[in-house]
Amino acid sequence: MSKSCRFSCATLLLLAITSVVAQDLTHPTRMALPDSDFKRPSPTDFELALDNGLTAFVAEARQAPLVTLTAFIRVGLVDDDLQGSAEALLDAMRSSGPADMTPDTFRASLKRMTADFTVEMHDEWTEVSLNVPAEDLGAAMQLFAAVLRRPAIAAGNIERAAQSAEPDPDDLGGEDGPALYEGSLNAAIEQFNDVLYARHPYGVRPELTDFEQLSVDDVVQFHAAYFVPGNLVLAMAGDFDAEAMHAMIAEQFEDWRAGVVPDVEEMPPVRIRGSRQHSFPAEKLQSWLVFGHDLPQVPGNDAAALEVMNYILAGGHLWTRMTIETRYKYGYTNDASGFLEEKWFGPGSYSFRSYSRPEVIKAIYANMMAEIIRIRNEEVTDEELFVAKGALTEGSFQVRYLDGYQIARSFALERLRYGHHERSATYVQRIRGVTAKDVLAAAVKYLRPDDMQVILIGAAEDLLD
Predict the structure, then answer these.
(1) Would you state the pLDDT for residue 285?
(2) Cα 132 to chain center, whole Å?
């Protein structure tokens, strides 16, 4: 070894040792960290209310010369009085554009502005979003308002929506193509939802016969009933002057006639009880596992304890109980996570997901279930509480208000769902007030091991015996 090499290696070793010695390895619970001084922005600083009942949240965000125009509408796939209307309207808004423009002209306008235009319809709400360069804001606002207020609805939209009533079967038999990894996980999640919401309004989807009975006038009436100013909230963010945006919103929307805001229909509970395994054999190198049960509507104080509990148990980060047990202790899988998915007006779901080699999938399921049983039987530690409450209040909550885009979106969705902003105003206080006894009570109340519906895609295995 040359002198220069010995010198270089010795230098690198010394630097490495110095770096390790210099690290502060004090545990966070003993660092005496000050409380965060973050304060959630006030929604009134961003709110614009028109006389016709339309509300908008407007936030400047000048980090890039872009603007995002978003509308949230309280209507979705389950608010469909006449099956197929929502799907046909979704197709019209996505592909046809406004009534005073041909579809080709609509697409050409989007292309000219290099726009990103999306329409997503969920079970209970719809999101329409248009992202454009700031220089095209004027034309984009006119187009955006026209699509919301006067979408072009034609027979072709019904025909295209009908084609989706018979989706192609998922390819679960081979080892190549999009079904290899995420396709199979997504298929497992879809199968879980199909099982959970079988014979429930959240699970009903139109069939070909529904579209055959649907008329253009039916879809027009569906749009007129739900796309009214009081049933819609706008979120406008980007590189613009807020006062100028207020004026543009008024110009495009204040003459929109106020309509009757549809009543919210509360959904019935899910009545599936008792565990059952639903297997979908596939000759693959991996297996995919999703299991869980329905989640009833959760009141605010319970929601805080439930969120803390899930963060500790399986909250999607690298130091959950399920991850420690399945990944670090045994090396079975890279992921074992839990997902709280609340619905707005009915039962949501609480599911757990993992994947790995078929020969260890039973052990993964057993380990995950053991952690569910443990958190229902004993209080979490002070350290776990400290980490979870800090991560939620000083991490994920603050990200909701990170910049103008997040601020406008968060306030708009909260207003549409609840009609007020009390949930976000009290979030930090509610999370910080959660105790170990609260977490235990939430686990006992909202985790039901005996009602788990188990979805397995992959090699055959009896997980419930």
Answers:
(1) 87
(2) 23
At 59 the pLDDT is: 98
| Interstrand relation of 55-60 and 232-238 (parallel, antiparallel or unpaired) | parallel
DSSP-derived secondary structure letter, 426? T
Among candidate residues 366, 396, 369, the one with its CA nearest the CA of residue 314: 369
How many CB atoms within 10 Å of residue 263? 6
357, 333 contact by CB (below 8 A): no
H or E, element range at 281: strand 276-281
pLDDT value at residue 10: 52
Taking 70 as the pLDDT cut, the residues of the chain under it are: 1-25, 27-29, 166-183
Q: Which amino acid is at 410?
A: S
Residue type, 272: I
φ, ψ of residue 34 to 5 degrees: the values are: -70, 155
Residue with tokens 């039916």: 218
Domains by residue range for the chain, with CATH? 43-165+205-253 (3.30.830.10), 276-458 (3.30.830.10)
DSSP class per residue in 58-113: EEE--SSSEEEEEEEES--GGG-SSTTHHHHHHHIIIII-BTTS-HHHHHHHHHHT
370 forms beta bridges with none
Cα 276 from chain centre:
27
In this structure, the strands spanning 55-60 and 116-121 are: unpaired
C-alpha–C-alpha distance, residues 126 and 212, integer Å:
24
DSSP 8-class letter at 263: P
Q: Which two structure tokens, joined as six digits, stand for 319? A: 């130091």
List pLDDT tens digits, range 357-389.
999 999 999 999 999 999 999 999 999 999 999
pLDDT value at residue 81: 76
Report how far residue 339's alpha carbon sits from residue 316's, in angstroms, rounded to the nearest whole number.
8
pLDDT of residue 165: 77
Maximal CA-CA distance, the chain: 87
| Chain mean pLDDT for the chain | 91
